Description:
CATH architecture of the domain at 90-309 in chain B: Orthogonal Bundle
Number of domains of chain A: 3
Radius of gyration of chain A: 24 Å
CATH topology of the domain at 90-309 in chain B: MetI-like fold
Structural class of chain A: alpha+beta
Protein name (chain B): ABC transporter permease
CATH architecture of the largest domain in chain A: Roll
Structural class of chain B: mainly alpha
Strand content of chain B: under 5%
Order of helices and strands of chain B: HHHHHHHHHHHHH
CATH superfamily of the largest domain in chain A: Dipeptide-binding Protein, Domain 3
CATH class of the domain at 90-309 in chain B: Mainly Alpha
Shape of chain A: globular
Radius of gyration of chain B: 24 Å
Transmembrane segments (chain B): 12-32, 102-125, 137-160, 180-201, 238-263, 283-309
Helix content of chain B: over 70%
Largest sheet of chain A: 7 strands, mixed
Number of helices of chain B: 13
Number of strands of chain A: 22
Mean pLDDT of chain A: 88
Largest sheet of chain B: none
Distance between the termini of chain A: 30 Å
CATH superfamily of the domain at 90-309 in chain B: MetI-like
Strand content of chain A: 15-25%
Mean pLDDT of chain B: 85
Family (chain B): Belongs to the binding-protein-dependent transport system permease family.
Oligomer: heterodimer
InterPro entries (chain B): BPD_transp_1_N, MetI-like, MetI-like_sf
CATH class of the largest domain in chain A: Alpha Beta
Keywords (chain B): Cell membrane, Membrane, Transmembrane, Transmembrane helix, Transport
Low-confidence stretches of chain A: 1-32
Amino acid sequence: MPPFTTSRRRLLRWVGAAGAAGLAGCAGGSGDGSELVATLGADVSTYDPTQANDTTSRKAFGLVYEPLVSVDFEGTVRPTLATAVDQRDDRTWRISLREGVTFHDGSDLTAADVVATFERYEGTPRESDVYLWYDDATIRDDYTLDVTLSEPYAPFQLSLGGVPIVPEAAATDALDLSNGPVGTGPYAFDTHEPDRLYRLVRNDDHWYGGEGEADDGDGVPDTPPIETLTFRIIVEQSSQVAALRAGDIDLANNPPADAVADLRADDAITVSERLAGGFEMLVFPLATSPFSNRDVREGIARLVPRQEIIDSVYGGIGQPAYAPISPLLSDYTSESFLQEMGEEYMRYDPEQARELLERGFSALDISPPYETTIVTNETGDRVRWAQLVRDELNRTDYFDVSLEQFEWNTYVGRVLAGDSHRSDAMMALGWSGGWDPDTYLRSVFHGEQSTPSCCNAAHYANDEVDRLLDEALTVYDTAERRELYEQAQRRIVSDAPVAFVRFGTRIEAFRSDTVEGFRTYPLDSGEFTAIYAPWANTYTSLGGG
Amino acid sequence: MSLRRYVLRRTLLTLPILFGVSVLTFSLVKLLPGTPVDYVLQFQEATPELRASLRAQYHLDEPLWRQYLLWLNDVLHLDFGDRVVSDRSVRAAIAERLPETLVLGGVAFLIALLVGVPAGVLAAVRRGTLVDEGSRVVALAGIATPNFWLGLLLILLFGVHLNLVSVIPPIAPLFAPESLAFLVLPAITLGTASAALFTRLTRSAVTEQLRQEYVRTARAKGLDERTVVVKHVLRNSLISVVTVAAVQVAFLLDGAVVIERVFSWPGLGRLLVRAILQRDFPVVQAVVLLVATAVVLANLLADVLYAWLDPRIAY
């Protein structure tokens, strides 16, 4: 899996950069022999969770491996390979495993596999997925273990959801995961032809016993209704949309915004959308005048035409952002809080912006117009919103802004450079978070995360914010955490190291006559969760057509 | 100098060129921002030990000249190392993709020749007529049309609106009839510019030949026009076409990078683009070196063919 991303200390994962994916299929009812031909927007580069730094790979093995717990479509933690995760004290959690679960290689799942899974992260590119919180584990019996954390860690259960369990043999090199993923999931690996296809077949020995009811009242089947999943690798988004419309594939992940209206108009296609984790923002280089001045920053933030951006760039899809935590996390933010932040510090208001800029420029004794740049990568939507912001700024007498685009890797190198805060350019960025509030804040706003450590490109540093974020990470009580995160957000938004622009939306488009029951998962790499997720009473089948 | 000596000398001359190509390939890749370590770590914080061990794994801790020599030594043994993004060898990845690109390029080349040369001859024979003017307009449009755009246009027309062909390649072996049938659109897209070039080139070569004395002689001898054009004029005209055709190999490989993406064709171009984005340097170096070598060899072949076809050429 994982069905959510833990972007803490992780890369900047610019919204839309991950490539798209989709599902497709030929018809054949939900009976035997059914094949769903899916798509991935890039090739799968590894089958090993400890090596996978790209969303495509994580997407591709999401149905093969399973974590101890999963996070459902609303962000609720659900038992998966664990039947219970109980807290013993601040740092110790007892995990009870489901009995009778077998890996695709026939071996039984036991506590030893879980411990080996945790420990094989050491010294790997994804070390921080586990070693942010993992200290030690004690096996109590074949199906019970105690995990000791290095310190109290609030997102522990969500983090468990991001650790796909692999057989112990993979840790001892008796099993080489580079030949193919081996998990306990509802689908087992079949073939991979690089840049051509990646195929999974139904695991008829999946542990699920058919208990529970699906949302539509039908019982959840014991095994997935779809027998074979073939992911076709289609890099070019336009080709992906064309393939969907031609019926060569039946579902496309994240079609480009400018194709959505056409897809909506097509009777054969259903477009499903829901709020995603993540936001777009304009980052200010805090060490450079005039961006060092708070009034100037707020002035610019108030010139970001958010609604116009959503309407004209994103075809009406998305929501204006005034604070970092996505409304997706309803336990930690609310519409009224966002509106309040907008009103006080960020909402589009050219008149107020002029006053703020006037005050800021006078305080700095800078005579306008100030020549500067907005840098972006070549993601079309991002370039277009940056153009709209540039135009707004140039309409005032205070700025003479130009736009500069960079190839993706050059761009990442530039915005994550250690001196990003000394640049004289604003940076148009996207950030994707997960189900925990910390994922929206720490990497971008914690003082210790300043580039090149991680992704705080503005080099925003506020001791109070750092303290709040650190404390919130150790508090298990949701209400208490929410209070801490509200305080942190309030400080950040009022300091305005960045101007928040838009909360993203995840979109899937699928052929109405074949795909049934598909639900849109809001986070990166969890797109295929809906194919079979008995823990969330969700499965997709193929209809007539 | 005999032809044999010329070929030998010309072949020896390619060695320093290939050496230069290897130095350039190696250096240009080094100029790309980032290192494989950045990709592996995705710019995350990492312990200095982990970073150092990864750097050592890719020989990044060695001086540049030594990195080059280590690389060159491996390359001369046809060992391109392992990929950064997986444990698989670069050679295996290339071996897997090369046939796909060669078949796509081959079909495109064939289409370009089969369309371009006859069209050029026709235009020359009927020069000044509507056929000539028409072929000029079509050829210019063919040269000017970005193949990316043409590809998408063909997909929309034949794949979506007319629903005659699949938008994505069939799941079948490379030489299965359905795979070859699928190749028609990408090959047309890829071959269009070359076809247009061959048309213009053939037209001017044939026009030139038609003015020669020997044509007048042949006609005077009573040979029919068809024999004059096909047996005499075309053979002489093809000298320049052949040389340009060899160089077109480079353009076809180049264009494949874009076309393979549009048509989801799993060839070398796709491998290269993804490798660049992933900082999979061993792959980038191997593919660029391979393509550059192919171009150098194509040029060599063109020169040799030229010399062989036209004994008047001094060497």
